[in-house]
C-alpha cells in the first residue's frame, strides 16, 4: 500500500501533492484528496464518526 501511494505522490504535480498533504493532515488521516481546487480554500473536516486518541507508551 505504501508503494501505491508513493507512486501516486511522486508522479503527480505540486497541486495534487499539496492536496494530499493538507487533506490527510487536517482530517487526522481519514481523508486523502487529490483535488487542490476542492481542499485548497477550506479546512478539511473528517467525515467519519471517529474519536481521536493519544497513544500511551
Please describe the biggest sheet, giving its number of strands, its sense, and whether it closes into a barrel: none
Structure annotation, total helices:
3
How would you sum up the global shape?
Answer: flat
C-alpha end-to-end distance: 26 Å
Low-confidence stretches: none
The pLDDT mean sits at 83
How big is the Rg?
13 Å
Give the beta-strand count. 0
- Estimated structural class: mainly alpha
Strand content: under 5%
Residues in helices, as a percent range: 40-55%
Which H/E pattern describes the elements?
HHH
Structural notes for this entry:
The protein is mainly alpha-helical and about 55 residues long. The protein is about 45% helix and about 0% strand. It is built from 3 helices and no strands. The model has no long low-confidence stretch (mean pLDDT about 85).
Describe the structure using short key phrases.
47% helix; 57 residues; mainly alpha
Which SSEs are present, and which pair or pack?
Elements: H1 2-11, H2 14-26, H3 36-39
Quick overview:
The chain is mostly helical. It has helices spanning 2-11, 14-26, 36-39.
